[in-house]
């Protein structure tokens, strides 16, 4: 179906009056406007908002009563792991008059009482059908409505379906043989009986040491005669330090609740808290240890994860923090072997859900509590009387499964949902969920997922994320009504873009390194895909709001009177690059082209002092080499491996005007270590004092000198490549051709990182990226004007793209960045090399800017591109490419 780009002329905007669908259309009137699946925190808030907005609704709930997660998870010790005061609805500002939390972390019964209180206070039960599971929901395209069937025999049509099914509500199967033969008691933490369970005097097995195990084990151990914990993966847990609600927090809250809630909405995790921007190793070890101790002492998960900015991205930072945890475990647990088994070592801290506990580790010091490491002693089977491992037969009166959930997607795909053309959602998601904003999925019109995959959900305070999603859905329904649309659905492009963006966000973190339920890794056969959105509640909310502000960007809206589609991608930059640009914009720095040259150079040098240094190399040597007219500084980076090494002559960026031999220091270190080659960053004379072709002459002189002195420098003669970024990339390309024409020195390969190749300012990339991505078109123009006269700009020593013959040039890797004014000329040069028969690899760096690929340890998304550069260099240096064999 074709959708016009703009709204149909016949559709004038209407006000927000409630107009039923039947008033607008001769299509069948559905039984209700909205079916909601689930009556947990999300379902209750939906019932509240939908009913007050005049929508006819039905809520189906499989449980016999409301509460969702808090209805089912009644195991001993079950508590929320976000402070109670943050884990509640914000829509009812009068709550303080009729509700008080008794503890910092409320127990399951107290939370359930709170939810019942809310339901009663706002008369929500009348919308809910209990003890009824939705089995099937099928989209009827002709009638433009959903047909929903339940196990109670209901057959209900609805314009919209909202899945409020929760992220941790579909329990995992037991996955152990022989359970049916066990004659004792069997419990699942996720389906705990309503009547009290008495373990007094009993021998109890607990399988699983996630949050449910960590919370329940100490409480079970208070009663039981013997407790044996079967642990597959140890967990990182910090003491909850539960008690009274903190008076400071209450005071903050009481002072201005609206501000407090608003700060939560604009925070990274849904709890008022500043995002840490301090990298771990930017402060002293003593300070770091103090900071870790403080986090351990506060007893709040978000505080702990937020100690430093790079805990979830820098392996070394993560390792140090993990070691702090392991030391705590070793200090608490008496038996060294048990302590060792309890220490997680095979995944980075916080990449599996960390836990909050009360006496968890100390429980293992009790004489009747024992830990079995099932990685060493796998469970073979459950028997009539207990559990057999490969080495031991245990006898139990009760077995408790705390084995977790088919998280985030399990409860959604458990319903047989079919969309357009009877396509099943389960099939569509067979290789992993695809959503737009975690709220909607293409091919399934009018289906909303509350805290679905691709939204912050389980990485955030669920109460805040649920409200945000429900509010967004309500606004959307209001918009559809007001504008006469009956259906909304994301486009394939928007969905693919969002799925890519979520993966991009995950890929710059350590999350994918763990076999966690965030990755779907806990369920046999489930695709390994990172499920939640990790960039934060604040960024996520801003994105959802932006989609609306841009006329429902990425959605098709349709109705009897017409349709509209404003297709596009809401996030195109790499997430870390976007964050850097936001921070730079907030600093409101002057632009180089607004300054006199000397000031620009000083400013450029000053900016370089605040960046991370890049990786350690074996040795750094500063020296001078003879340039075309005088000495030039160089810096040599030697790999830590034994030499001799191949050599890369590197030319720095800076528009021929700013920069020097050390201004691309982190990039050169990175290249050196990754490619295992000596990198010699050679300076050249700068404009405007020394205009074109001074820089070219110096670059040629540097390459000749390095080739002549390769052995003395520790290099391998004949294994010489050139590399440059920006203006330096231009010089590397120019030198490659000039050395070809001069018959030497022989260059085995050229690395051109976002190079100018003809400076044609009329290209589309100069127009599209004129502002906003660091290098502006005005700044590029400023550089060209300082460097070269307009009359010389077709000289191939400035414009390699204008060289008549590119054949026989060294093999090349050309990197272009999507949001770079220079993108199109780099692309054109790669194509020209290819056309001339030069082996060329063109890397299109998606979501990157002119500069971001050089930001080592800052824009982490650039690392895979630099890895490809290093890989290309290693290829250039293979013996088959040396002068003897190249001919
Ligand atoms: P989790 O966090 O998924 O924990 C489940 C635990 O059960 C975990 O230690 C699993 O080990 C273990 N497990 C799962 N299957 C098996 C089998 N077959 N054999 C042995 N051990 C097994 O679920 P929870 O209910 O504790 O917590 C869920 C969330 O609720 C929690 O994160 C909070 O957000 C609230 P594994 O790690 O998979 O090796």
Q: Give the helix level as a range of percent.
A: 25-40%
Attached small molecules: ligand NA7
Shape descriptor reads globular
Number of helices: 28
User: Would you identify the regions where 5 or more consecutive residues have pLDDT less than 50?
Assistant: 1-25
**What's the oligomerization state?**
single chain
Record field, number of beta strands:
29
The assigned structural class equals: alpha/beta
Largest sheet: 8 strands, mixed
Radius of gyration: 31 Å
Strand percentage lies at: 15-25%
Query: Span from first to last CA?
Result: 57 Å
- In round numbers, the mean pLDDT is 94
Jot down its keywords.
33% helix, alpha/beta, eight-stranded mixed sheet, binds ligand NA7, disordered N terminus, globular, single chain
Description:
By secondary structure, the protein is α/β, with parallel strands linked by helices. Helices cover 33% and strands 18% of the residues. The chain contains 28 helices and 29 strands. The strands form six sheets. Strands 1, 2, 3, 4, 5, 6, 17 and 18 form an eight-stranded mixed β-sheet that branches. An eight-stranded mixed β-sheet has the order 22-23-25-24-26-27-28-29, sandwiched between helices. Helix 7 crosses helix 8 (257-265) and helix 22 (694-708) crosses helix 23 (727-742). It is globular. The protein starts with 20 loop residues before the first helix and ends with a helix. Residues 1-25 have low confidence and may be disordered. Bound molecules: ligand NA7. The site of ligand NA7 has 20 residues, from helix 6. Residues 168, 175-176, 189, 207-213, 232-233, 353, 374, 402-404, 517, 522 line the site of ligand NA7.
